[in-house]
Protein backbone atom coordinates (compact mmCIF):
# COMPACT_ATOMS: atom_id res chain seq x y z
CA UNK A 1 0.00 0.00 0.00
CA UNK A 2 1.31 3.52 -0.77
CA UNK A 3 2.37 5.67 2.19
CA UNK A 4 1.00 9.22 2.33
CA UNK A 5 1.55 12.22 4.61
CA UNK A 6 0.15 15.73 4.73
CA UNK A 7 1.89 18.68 6.42
CA UNK A 8 -0.06 21.92 6.78
CA UNK A 9 1.84 25.01 7.93
CA UNK A 10 4.68 22.82 9.18
CA UNK A 11 2.49 20.46 11.21
CA UNK A 12 1.81 16.82 10.40
CA UNK A 13 -1.92 16.78 9.86
CA UNK A 14 -2.82 13.48 8.20
CA UNK A 15 -1.41 10.11 7.13
CA UNK A 16 -2.63 7.21 5.05
CA UNK A 17 -5.10 9.15 2.95
CA UNK A 18 -5.85 8.04 -0.65
CA UNK A 19 -3.56 9.21 -3.42
CA UNK A 20 -6.63 10.43 -5.27
CA UNK A 21 -6.92 13.26 -2.71
CA UNK A 22 -3.46 14.62 -3.47
CA UNK A 23 -4.38 16.77 -6.46
CA UNK A 24 -6.82 18.72 -4.31
CA UNK A 25 -4.36 19.07 -1.42
CA UNK A 26 -1.40 20.40 -3.39
CA UNK A 27 -3.56 23.20 -4.71
CA UNK A 28 -3.25 24.73 -1.22
CA UNK A 29 0.16 26.44 -0.90
CA UNK A 30 0.12 25.86 2.86
CA UNK A 31 0.10 22.09 2.31
CA UNK A 32 3.08 19.83 1.68
CA UNK A 33 2.39 16.26 0.60
CA UNK A 34 4.58 13.17 0.56
CA UNK A 35 3.62 9.81 -0.79
CA UNK A 36 5.63 6.69 -1.47
CA UNK A 37 5.14 4.01 -4.12
CA UNK A 38 6.81 0.60 -3.97
CA UNK A 39 7.00 -1.53 -7.12
CA UNK A 40 4.59 0.65 -9.10
CA UNK A 41 3.63 -0.30 -12.61
CA UNK A 42 4.35 1.93 -15.58
CA UNK A 43 0.64 2.76 -15.71
CA UNK A 44 0.67 3.87 -12.04
CA UNK A 45 3.62 6.17 -12.65
CA UNK A 46 2.07 7.57 -15.79
CA UNK A 47 -1.11 8.38 -13.90
CA UNK A 48 0.89 10.17 -11.19
CA UNK A 49 2.89 11.96 -13.86
CA UNK A 50 -0.23 13.22 -15.55
CA UNK A 51 -1.71 14.39 -12.27
CA UNK A 52 1.39 16.27 -11.10
CA UNK A 53 2.60 17.38 -14.53
CA UNK A 54 5.81 15.31 -14.40
CA UNK A 55 8.09 15.16 -17.39
CA UNK A 56 7.90 11.97 -19.45
CA UNK A 57 11.69 11.45 -19.28
CA UNK A 58 11.61 11.64 -15.48
CA UNK A 59 8.78 9.10 -15.33
CA UNK A 60 10.76 6.84 -17.64
CA UNK A 61 13.92 7.15 -15.50
CA UNK A 62 11.91 6.17 -12.42
CA UNK A 63 11.00 2.86 -14.05
CA UNK A 64 14.53 2.13 -15.31
CA UNK A 65 16.73 0.29 -12.83
CA UNK A 66 20.49 0.54 -12.20
CA UNK A 67 20.95 4.09 -13.43
CA UNK A 68 23.61 6.30 -11.87
CA UNK A 69 22.65 8.64 -9.02
CA UNK A 70 21.68 12.00 -10.50
CA UNK A 71 19.63 15.16 -10.20
CA UNK A 72 17.67 16.32 -13.26
CA UNK A 73 15.97 19.70 -13.42
CA UNK A 74 12.75 20.25 -15.37
CA UNK A 75 10.49 23.29 -15.68
CA UNK A 76 8.03 22.31 -12.96
CA UNK A 77 9.93 19.83 -10.83
CA UNK A 78 13.19 18.05 -10.04
CA UNK A 79 13.96 14.37 -10.41
CA UNK A 80 16.61 12.54 -8.41
CA UNK A 81 17.74 8.94 -8.15
CA UNK A 82 19.88 7.58 -5.32
CA UNK A 83 20.87 4.30 -3.69
CA UNK A 84 21.12 3.17 -0.11
CA UNK A 85 23.78 0.54 0.56
CA UNK A 86 24.48 -2.10 3.17
CA UNK A 87 27.46 -4.43 3.44
CA UNK A 88 26.75 -8.12 3.97
CA UNK A 89 29.69 -8.92 6.25
CA UNK A 90 29.43 -12.68 5.77
CA UNK A 91 29.69 -12.61 1.98
CA UNK A 92 31.44 -9.26 1.55
CA UNK A 93 28.80 -8.20 -1.00
CA UNK A 94 27.14 -4.81 -1.14
CA UNK A 95 23.33 -4.78 -1.03
CA UNK A 96 21.76 -1.72 -2.66
CA UNK A 97 18.30 -0.19 -2.38
CA UNK A 98 17.12 2.08 -5.18
CA UNK A 99 14.89 5.11 -4.72
CA UNK A 100 13.67 7.77 -7.15
CA UNK A 101 12.09 11.05 -6.10
CA UNK A 102 9.99 13.68 -7.86
CA UNK A 103 10.33 17.07 -6.17
CA UNK A 104 7.77 19.80 -6.77
CA UNK A 105 7.05 23.06 -4.94
CA UNK A 106 4.89 21.35 -2.30
CA UNK A 107 5.10 17.62 -2.96
CA UNK A 108 7.68 14.86 -2.69
CA UNK A 109 7.00 11.55 -4.42
CA UNK A 110 9.34 8.63 -3.68
CA UNK A 111 9.38 5.56 -5.89
CA UNK A 112 11.09 2.35 -4.78
CA UNK A 113 11.81 -0.67 -6.96
CA UNK A 114 11.64 -3.05 -3.99
CA UNK A 115 11.66 -3.26 -0.18
CA UNK A 116 15.45 -3.08 0.13
CA UNK A 117 15.29 0.68 0.50
CA UNK A 118 14.20 1.29 4.10
CA UNK A 119 11.61 4.05 3.81
CA UNK A 120 10.68 3.58 7.48
CA UNK A 121 14.14 4.86 8.45
CA UNK A 122 13.46 8.01 6.42
CA UNK A 123 10.10 8.54 8.11
CA UNK A 124 11.80 8.12 11.48
CA UNK A 125 14.26 10.89 10.61
CA UNK A 126 11.39 13.21 9.74
CA UNK A 127 9.68 12.43 13.04
CA UNK A 128 12.88 13.10 14.99
CA UNK A 129 13.04 16.72 13.78
CA UNK A 130 9.43 18.02 13.55
CA UNK A 131 10.66 21.58 14.11
CA UNK A 132 12.08 21.58 10.56
CA UNK A 133 8.77 20.58 8.96
CA UNK A 134 7.94 24.25 8.45
CA UNK A 135 10.50 24.28 5.62
CA UNK A 136 8.29 22.01 3.54
CA UNK A 137 9.77 19.95 0.72
CA UNK A 138 13.33 20.97 1.65
CA UNK A 139 12.81 19.29 5.02
CA UNK A 140 11.49 16.09 3.42
CA UNK A 141 14.27 15.98 0.82
CA UNK A 142 16.93 16.50 3.49
CA UNK A 143 15.66 13.55 5.52
CA UNK A 144 15.71 11.34 2.43
CA UNK A 145 19.24 12.27 1.32
CA UNK A 146 20.60 12.25 4.86
CA UNK A 147 19.47 8.65 5.26
CA UNK A 148 21.00 7.67 1.91
CA UNK A 149 24.37 9.26 2.68
CA UNK A 150 24.45 7.76 6.18
CA UNK A 151 24.09 4.28 4.67
CA UNK A 152 27.08 5.06 2.45
CA UNK A 153 29.08 6.12 5.48
CA UNK A 154 28.11 3.00 7.44
CA UNK A 155 29.05 0.79 4.49
CA UNK A 156 32.46 2.46 4.17
CA UNK A 157 33.05 2.01 7.90
CA UNK A 158 32.16 -1.70 7.67
CA UNK A 159 34.45 -2.15 4.67
CA UNK A 160 37.25 -0.46 6.57
CA UNK A 161 36.85 -2.93 9.43
CA UNK A 162 36.81 -5.90 7.06
CA UNK A 163 39.93 -4.68 5.25
CA UNK A 164 41.77 -4.19 8.55
CA UNK A 165 40.94 -7.79 9.49
CA UNK A 166 42.22 -8.84 6.08
CA UNK A 167 45.52 -7.05 6.72
CA UNK A 168 46.00 -8.98 9.95
CA UNK A 169 45.46 -12.29 8.15
CA UNK A 170 48.20 -11.47 5.65
CA UNK A 171 50.96 -11.86 8.22
CA UNK A 172 49.68 -14.93 10.06
CA UNK A 173 52.12 -17.83 10.22
CA UNK A 174 49.56 -20.23 8.77
CA UNK A 175 48.01 -17.92 6.19
CA UNK A 176 44.88 -19.11 4.41
CA UNK A 177 45.90 -17.98 0.96
CA UNK A 178 42.73 -19.13 -0.78
CA UNK A 179 40.44 -17.49 1.78
CA UNK A 180 42.44 -14.25 1.81
CA UNK A 181 42.42 -14.06 -1.98
CA UNK A 182 38.69 -14.70 -2.23
CA UNK A 183 37.89 -12.16 0.50
CA UNK A 184 40.15 -9.54 -1.09
CA UNK A 185 38.42 -9.76 -4.45
CA UNK A 186 34.96 -9.72 -2.83
CA UNK A 187 35.76 -6.53 -0.91
CA UNK A 188 37.37 -4.97 -3.95
CA UNK A 189 34.25 -5.68 -5.99
CA UNK A 190 32.09 -4.09 -3.29
CA UNK A 191 34.35 -1.04 -3.19
CA UNK A 192 34.07 -0.59 -6.95
CA UNK A 193 30.27 -0.72 -6.70
CA UNK A 194 30.24 1.65 -3.72
CA UNK A 195 32.48 4.09 -5.59
CA UNK A 196 30.04 4.16 -8.51
CA UNK A 197 27.28 5.09 -6.06
CA UNK A 198 29.14 7.53 -3.79
CA UNK A 199 30.97 9.65 -6.36
CA UNK A 200 27.87 10.93 -8.23
CA UNK A 201 26.27 11.86 -4.89
CA UNK A 202 28.86 14.60 -4.51
CA UNK A 203 27.63 16.22 -7.70
CA UNK A 204 23.99 15.64 -6.77
CA UNK A 205 24.17 17.34 -3.36
CA UNK A 206 26.42 20.09 -4.69
CA UNK A 207 23.77 20.94 -7.30
CA UNK A 208 21.17 21.27 -4.59
CA UNK A 209 23.41 23.70 -2.70
CA UNK A 210 23.66 26.13 -5.61
CA UNK A 211 21.94 29.26 -4.39
CA UNK A 212 21.17 30.55 -7.87
CA UNK A 213 18.88 27.58 -8.52
CA UNK A 214 16.67 28.33 -5.49
CA UNK A 215 15.98 24.65 -5.00
CA UNK A 216 16.06 24.46 -1.22
CA UNK A 217 14.96 26.84 1.51
CA UNK A 218 17.85 29.09 2.64
CA UNK A 219 17.25 28.06 6.24
CA UNK A 220 17.97 24.43 5.27
CA UNK A 221 21.31 25.29 3.63
CA UNK A 222 23.40 24.32 6.71
CA UNK A 223 21.67 20.95 6.91
CA UNK A 224 22.35 20.19 3.27
CA UNK A 225 25.93 21.41 3.73
CA UNK A 226 26.28 18.85 6.53
CA UNK A 227 25.05 16.13 4.14
CA UNK A 228 27.57 17.34 1.56
CA UNK A 229 30.39 17.08 4.13
CA UNK A 230 29.38 13.50 4.82
CA UNK A 231 29.37 12.79 1.09
CA UNK A 232 32.91 14.16 0.78
CA UNK A 233 34.13 12.09 3.73
CA UNK A 234 32.54 8.93 2.34
CA UNK A 235 34.07 9.64 -1.08
CA UNK A 236 37.57 10.22 0.28
CA UNK A 237 37.32 7.19 2.55
CA UNK A 238 36.20 5.01 -0.36
CA UNK A 239 39.12 6.17 -2.49
CA UNK A 240 41.63 5.48 0.29
CA UNK A 241 40.17 2.00 0.88
CA UNK A 242 40.37 1.29 -2.84
CA UNK A 243 44.08 2.11 -2.76
CA UNK A 244 44.47 0.03 0.39
CA UNK A 245 42.93 -3.05 -1.22
CA UNK A 246 45.35 -2.68 -4.12
CA UNK A 247 48.20 -2.48 -1.61
CA UNK A 248 46.94 -5.65 0.09
CA UNK A 249 47.01 -7.50 -3.23
CA UNK A 250 50.56 -6.30 -3.91
CA UNK A 251 51.68 -7.14 -0.37
CA UNK A 252 50.20 -10.60 -0.63
CA UNK A 253 52.13 -11.24 -3.84
CA UNK A 254 55.33 -9.99 -2.18
CA UNK A 255 54.81 -12.23 0.84
CA UNK A 256 54.21 -15.25 -1.37
CA UNK A 257 57.34 -14.40 -3.36
CA UNK A 258 59.38 -14.16 -0.16
CA UNK A 259 58.01 -17.49 1.07
CA UNK A 260 58.88 -19.05 -2.28
CA UNK A 261 62.43 -17.74 -1.98
CA UNK A 262 62.75 -19.29 1.49
CA UNK A 263 61.43 -22.62 0.25
CA UNK A 264 63.80 -22.50 -2.72
CA UNK A 265 66.77 -21.90 -0.42
CA UNK A 266 65.70 -24.77 1.83
CA UNK A 267 65.29 -27.19 -1.08
CA UNK A 268 68.63 -26.11 -2.54
CA UNK A 269 70.35 -26.54 0.81
CA UNK A 270 69.00 -30.08 1.24
CA UNK A 271 69.96 -30.88 -2.33
CA UNK A 272 73.54 -29.75 -1.60
CA UNK A 273 73.67 -31.94 1.49
CA UNK A 274 72.32 -34.95 -0.40
CA UNK A 275 74.84 -34.35 -3.20
CA UNK A 276 77.76 -35.06 -0.81
CA UNK A 277 76.96 -38.75 -0.07
CA UNK A 278 75.94 -39.19 -3.70
CA UNK A 279 79.34 -37.96 -4.88
CA UNK A 280 81.31 -40.00 -2.37
CA UNK A 281 79.42 -43.24 -2.90
CA UNK A 282 79.65 -42.68 -6.62
CA UNK A 283 83.42 -42.25 -6.37
CA UNK A 284 83.79 -45.33 -4.21
CA UNK A 285 81.57 -47.22 -6.61
CA UNK A 286 84.19 -47.04 -9.36
CA UNK A 287 85.55 -50.39 -10.46
CA UNK A 288 89.15 -49.35 -9.73
CA UNK A 289 91.41 -49.75 -6.67
CA UNK A 290 91.17 -46.92 -4.13
CA UNK A 291 92.33 -46.47 -0.53
CA UNK A 292 90.69 -49.19 1.51
CA UNK A 293 89.61 -51.12 -1.59
CA UNK A 294 88.47 -54.60 -0.63
CA UNK A 295 88.68 -53.81 3.11
CA UNK A 296 86.17 -52.77 5.75
CA UNK A 297 88.23 -49.66 6.42
CA UNK A 298 87.23 -48.30 3.00
CA UNK A 299 83.53 -48.51 3.92
CA UNK A 300 84.02 -46.84 7.27
CA UNK A 301 86.22 -44.14 5.74
CA UNK A 302 83.62 -43.25 3.10
CA UNK A 303 80.86 -43.25 5.73
CA UNK A 304 82.84 -40.94 8.00
CA UNK A 305 83.61 -38.52 5.16
CA UNK A 306 79.93 -38.50 4.11
CA UNK A 307 78.65 -37.74 7.61
CA UNK A 308 81.32 -35.13 8.30
CA UNK A 309 80.74 -33.17 5.12
CA UNK A 310 76.92 -33.45 5.36
CA UNK A 311 76.86 -32.22 8.96
CA UNK A 312 79.26 -29.41 8.09
CA UNK A 313 77.02 -28.23 5.26
CA UNK A 314 73.95 -28.52 7.50
CA UNK A 315 75.60 -26.35 10.17
CA UNK A 316 76.63 -23.72 7.61
CA UNK A 317 73.17 -23.52 6.02
CA UNK A 318 71.52 -23.46 9.43
CA UNK A 319 73.70 -20.54 10.52
CA UNK A 320 72.76 -18.60 7.38
CA UNK A 321 69.08 -19.22 8.05
CA UNK A 322 68.53 -21.28 4.94
CA UNK A 323 67.22 -24.28 6.91
TrEMBL record:
Keywords noted in UniProt: Cell membrane, Membrane, Transmembrane, Transmembrane helix, Transport
What Gene Ontology cellular-component terms does the record carry?
plasma membrane
Concerning Gene3D superfamilies, the annotation shows:
CorA soluble domain-like (3.30.460.20), Magnesium transport protein CorA, transmembrane region (1.20.58.340)
Question: Where is it located?
Answer: Cell membrane
**Gene Ontology MF term list:** cobalt ion binding; cobalt ion transmembrane transporter activity; magnesium ion binding; magnesium ion transmembrane transporter activity
Which InterPro entries does the UniProt entry name for this protein? CorA_cytoplasmic_dom, CorA_TM1_TM2, MgTranspt_CorA/ZnTranspt_ZntB
User: Which branch of life, at top level?
Assistant: Bacteria
Membrane topology, from the record: Multi-pass membrane protein
Q: Where this protein primarily resides, as one coarse class?
A: membrane
Pfam families given in the database record: CorA (PF01544)
Q: List where the protein spans the membrane.
A: 267-285, 297-317
User: Which family does this protein fall into?
Assistant: Belongs to the CorA metal ion transporter (MIT) (TC 1.A.35) family.
Q: What is this protein called?
A: Magnesium transporter
Taxonomic lineage of this organism? Bacteria, Bacillati, Actinomycetota, Actinomycetes, Micromonosporales
